[in-house]
Design a protein that fits this description.
The two termini are 27 Å apart. This protein is α+β, with helices and mostly antiparallel strands and 515 residues long. The protein has a domain of 126 residues: Yope Regulator, Chain: A (2-Layer Sandwich). The strands form 2 sheets. The chain has a 6-stranded antiparallel beta sheet with strand order 3-4-5-6-8-7, with helices on both faces. A two-stranded antiparallel ribbon has the order 1-2.
Length: 515
């Protein structure tokens, strides 16, 4: 007698895709699942698959790729909620970050928010924010100022982004228009009060650097640069701040420091970043190179490999020429899309900047070199969650683990395989997944569900569930998700990792003890 064949639908395929590591294979599988669900009329699974793609592209850095998944999410959903309003923001921000998204495409997405705002449902502050930023990128300063005023006076929308980071965006706009004092006034609550976001105070300090420099407070700007760059030099989200650090070096006369930053950061151009950030980094770097060549001659530097160029000794002038070509090419692409010459003009103004005053000593310049690990946060110092915190906790335990290119940490403890990774828009969620080594035959599905329900009733961690990969056996897994948006200290990460390992091992042992 032949056995019954299990028919696996889009929901099962989506579960499998979610278990895949980030990368092109995962993206392709999620796209396939979403299309399959759409074709079979499974609106819920289609929406979940497209949403998973949005989050995947957020983590991957190529945010322009999330535009189509967002559009599909909007088509699949019956009405907007906070998540979909947030997705609309992502789609418009993709336009701001890359010329690969058409203006009309983004405006169509934004119109849905505008319709809600007009009917009083939600989103007026978010609509004003996005219209302000679009107008600014196109060079329509009067319109941008008008929308900024509405943005600042409207009731905040939770979908508009981190409340502690929105003043930084507003200050960056004001500084771009030359309103240095207004920019500093906008940043004052963040600079003078306690940090209410893991990106602060470094993001606010970086936004304040050039206004302080223009206001004659060079020492304060220097302190802000040193503290901000210490964080932004390696943090994935820190790349967008690098141009400001380079402009500080140019305007503050720290040309050698600027060259060091360029050489250190060039390899990051191999990673996916928004085109706007790449353009600004290249333009600011080109200016550093020009000023350095004028100041000390066209000396050579060791340029690391980047964007298909091999590592080589090049003159500062050559390096500046390469960066200039990159910056002007991207500026031209933005302007062609926007129908203006604003981005080319903005980059040209950066390329004409000169030091404002003699350089002041940077904090630490005359101090002895710090010992290894001196830049690491103290065990009780609260900061943003990092992969280094997770691996440090495992190192302290003496545990072995593997670390993949996406920053996922994987290890085995007894009969439990545990995966740690950062999740969320700001990578401030610690997500741990536990997989028990023992599998159950698919025929014991009811028993597996009963076990997980009992575990979830009696135990707090991990949240247990059953996964069917379709090979005749059931995987019993669990997950622990911890929101660390307010920051976390290394010692707290150690406690969290210990808890996951301890409870995950107990879970796997309980599965192994099943009859």
């Amino acid at each position: 007698m032949s056995g019954l064949r299990t028919v696996r639908g889009p929901g099962d395929a989506l579960s499998d895709a979610r278990d895949m590591p980030d990368g092109e294979s995962r993206i392709a599988e999620l796209e396939r699942v979403a299309s399959l669900a759409q074709a079979t009329g499974d609106r819920r699974i289609a929406l979940e698959a497209w949403s998973e793609l949005v989050e995947t592209h957020l983590r991957g850095g190529e945010r322009w790729r999330l535009f189509e998944p967002v559009r599909h999410c909007l088509d699949a959903a019956r009405s907007d909620d906070e998540t979909l309003r947030r997705y609309r923001r992502y789609a418009v921000e993709a336009l701001l970050g890359s010329p690969r998204i058409g203006l009309d495409q983004a405006r169509n997405v934004l119109d849905g928010l505008a319709d809600q705002a007009e009917t009083g449902d939600a989103g007026s502050a978010l609509v004003a924010q996005l219209r302000c930023r679009i107008a600014d990128q196109a060079g329509d300063e009067p319109a941008a100022r008008g929308w900024l005023g509405q943005w600042r006076t409207s009731t905040p929308d939770p979908a508009g982004g981190c409340p502690a980071c929105l003043p930084v965006r507003q200050a960056e706009l004001l500084a771009g228009w030359g309103d240095w004092a207004a920019a500093l006034d906008t940043l004052a609550p963040l600079l003078d009060g306690p940090a209410r976001c893991t990106a602060q105070p470094e993001a606010a300090l970086t936004a304040a650097m050039l206004p302080w420099l223009r206001a004659g407070e060079a020492e304060r700007a220097a302190r802000a640069h040193v503290r901000g760059y210490r964080r932004h030099r390696a943090e994935p989200d820190g790349f967008s701040h690098l141009a400001t650090h380079l402009r500080f070096c140019a305007l503050g006369g720290h040309l050698d420091r600027g060259l060091e930053i360029i050489v250190e950061q060039l390899p990051r151009l191999e990673q996916p970043h928004e085109d706007l950030s790449v353009m600004e980094f290249a333009a600011a770097g080109a200016r550093i190179c020009t000023l350095a060549a004028e100041s000390t001659g066209d000396r050579s530097v060791r340029r690391p490999a980047y964007r298909g160029r091999p590592s080589a000794d090049v003159t500062v002038g050559q390096l500046g020429s390469e960066l200039l070509t990159l910056a002007t090419g991207l500026a031209g692409s933005f302007d062609a899309r926007n129908g203006t010459g604003h981005q080319s003009g903005r980059m040209a103004s950066w390329l004409a900047e000169r030091p404002l005053a003699p350089p002041v000593p940077l904090p630490g310049d005359e101090e002895p070199e710090p010992e290894d690990g001196a830049d690491q946060p103290a065990v009780d110092e609260v900061g943003p969650l990092t992969t280094a915190m997770i691996t440090a906790a495992l190192d302290e335990r003496g545990d072995g683990y593997a670390l993949d290119a996406a920053g996922t940490v994987l290890g085995r403890w007894g009969d439990a395989v545990i995966q740690f990774r950062q999740a969320g828009e700001r990578q401030d969620i610690l997500h741990a997944r536990v997989v028990a080594g023992r599998r159950l035959p698919a025929a014991r599905r009811a028993e597996a569900y009963a076990f997980c329900n009992g575990w979830n009733r009696d135990r707090l961690l991990p949240k247990a569930y059953v996964h069917d990969p379709g090979d005749g056996e059931l995987v019993l897994a669990g997950e622990v998700t911890t929101d660390l948006a307010d920051g976390v200290a290394p010692i707290q990460v150690t406690v969290l990792v210990d808890s996951v390992v301890r409870t995950g091992l107990a879970y796997a042992e309980a599965v192994a003890a099943l009859p």
